[in-house]
Write a structure and sequence with these properties.
The structure is a single chain. With 407 residues, this protein is an alpha/beta fold. It has 2 domains: 8-210 and 390-406, Glycogen Phosphorylase B (Rossmann fold), CATH 3.40.50; 213-388, 3-Layer(aba) Sandwich (Rossmann fold). Helix content is 49%, strand content 15%. It has 17 helices and 13 strands. The chain has helices at 21-33, 52-60, 68-82, 84-100, 105-125, 137-149, 161-164, 171-177, 186-195, 242-255, 270-279, 294-302, 318-325, 338-341, 356-368, 371-388, 391-406, and strands spanning 8-14, 37-43, 61-63, 129-133, 153-157, 180-183, 204-206, 228-233, 259-264, 286-290, 306-309, 330-333, 348-351. It has a 7-stranded parallel sheet, sandwiched between helices. Strands 10-9-8-11-12-13 form a 6-stranded parallel sheet, with helices on both faces. Helix 4 crosses helix 5, helix 4 (84-100) packs antiparallel against helix 6 (137-149) and helix 10 (242-255) packs across helix 15 (356-368). The longest helix has 21 residues, at 105-125. Keywords: Glycosyltransferase, Transferase.
């Protein structure tokens, strides 16, 4: 008789979200193996959901904060009364974390109350293991739930936010208490080694984010015509480097007016980006497509010849994986986990982050390449990402880790 698989509770701060479809894919892949997974989110984002898969996932997810202040207070004081020693340990951790700057002490008390709710529900549901995504407050909640219930936990670190403030997020202590910590790239693992005790390094495993190969059939042909169309996808925020992208594109466009650029996304820097487009008189060359669901992003990618990712900070962008699965070469920056996937001259071009001139030169080099060369790079990109980032392979590795924690 096969051994019963442990029951898993996934914890994410806001879930599902359009930008977190990779988490949904991972959970579903884990379930395909046979695991029973319960979803915990602190809050939902229903107003932003349009994809049918996200809407279905919203219905399956338990949202902790919907219990309201009375529910949080009841869980908080109930844990203090029923398990005073464990509660004091969690309280000391909250005080230490607030002092380190992860958040204020009152906010840590909210995380502790959320952890108390998850701890109680884990016991009610018979969960054997908790797994959080992102090493920020999601993992704080998982750790508090562990301290209050004894249910083991693990977490996945993506970056770059966790690496911007590793001491404030208390990554070392979170790894020390966890059964394992998943990094999405070798770069991510190296950064976690900086903050974990050497005795805990063996806990840090590489588990790639993935795509579903079955959803990426024969790629669409490259668009025709003389123009070379680039697409960039991401939040209009500082770390994505879209302002630098417009500057670089303007340089390249002055030399090659056939270049076209589509921007998919939105965010706080949209007015600044629009102003840059007007200043450089690029209104006919740059198209702003706004936020798009998975279908819209895929359509924008297949309508382009290449993806450009000018980021200043990253983990390992899933959108690069999806573009590669669409057989589109990549222009990106030498940062974080990107060079582990995109190799210069094979799947695309890599440039130093923050170097507008180098980014412009890469665009011009791509524009000068013939169609056969671009198609060969796209085919190599597709082959590489399907081999390295199959979500079912990643789920199998997680399955081994989850099962090991239960033994």
């Amino acid at each position: 008789m096969s051994k019963k698989l442990p029951r898993i509770g996934y914890i994410v701060n806001t879930y599902p979200r359009p930008s977190h479809s990779f988490i949904r894919r991972e959970i579903v892949a884990v379930e395909r193996i046979g695991f029973d997974v319960h979803r915990f989110a602190m809050r939902g984002d229903l107003a932003q959901l349009k994809d049918a898969g996200d809407l279905a996932e919203h219905e399956r997810t338990e949202r902790v904060l919907e219990r309201g202040s009375r529910g949080l207070a009841g869980a908080f004081f109930g844990a203090a009364f029923r398990k005073p020693r464990q509660f004091l340990t969690a309280l000391r951790r909250a005080r230490s974390r607030a002092k380190a700057g992860e958040s204020s002490f009152p906010r840590q008390m909210i995380y502790l109350a959320e952890g108390a709710i998850v701890a109680a529900r884990a016991k009610e549901l018979g969960l054997d293991h908790l797994h959080a995504h992102f090493g920020t407050n999601s993992t704080s909640v998982a750790q508090y739930a562990h301290l209050l219930s004894g249910v083991p936990y693990s977490f996945t670190v993506h970056g770059p936010e966790e690496f911007d403030r590793p001491e404030a997020f208390d990554l070392g202590a979170k790894i020390a208490d966890a059964k394992f910590c998943a990094a999405i790239s070798s770069f991510g693992r190296s950064q976690l080694f900086r903050w974990a005790e050497p005795a805990d390094w063996a806990k840090v495993e590489i588990v790639h984010c993935g795509i579903e190969p079955a959803r990426w059939g024969a790629p669409s042909a490259f668009p025709g015509g003389m123009a070379l169309r680039l697409v960039a996808v991401g939040r209009f925020a500082e770390q994505k480097g879209f302002g630098l992208l417009i500057d670089a594109f303007a340089k390249a466009h002055r030399q090659n007016p056939n270049l076209q650029l589509s921007l998919v996304g939105d965010g706080p820097l949209r007015p600044e980006i629009e102003a840059l487009i007007r200043r450089e008189s690029l209104g006919d060359a740059v198209e702003l497509l706004g936020w798009q669901d998975e279908t819209g992003v895929r359509a924008a990618v297949t309508a382009a010849h290449l993806m450009v990712m000018p980021s200043f900070a990253e983990g390992l962008p899933v959108v690069i994986m999806e573009a590669m699965a669409s057989a589109r070469p990549i222009i990106a920056t030498y940062i974080a986990g990107i060079p582990e996937l995109v190799r210069p001259g094979q799947e695309g071009w890599l440039v130093p982050a923050g170097d507008s001139a180098a980014l412009a030169e890469a665009m011009l080099t791509a524009a000068a390449a013939d169609r056969v060369t671009l198609e060969a790079m796209g085919a190599a990109a597709r082959c590489r990402v399907l081999a390295r980032h199959d979500i079912d392979a990643s789920a199998e590795k997680l399955a081994q880790l989850f099962t090991a924690t239960a033994n």
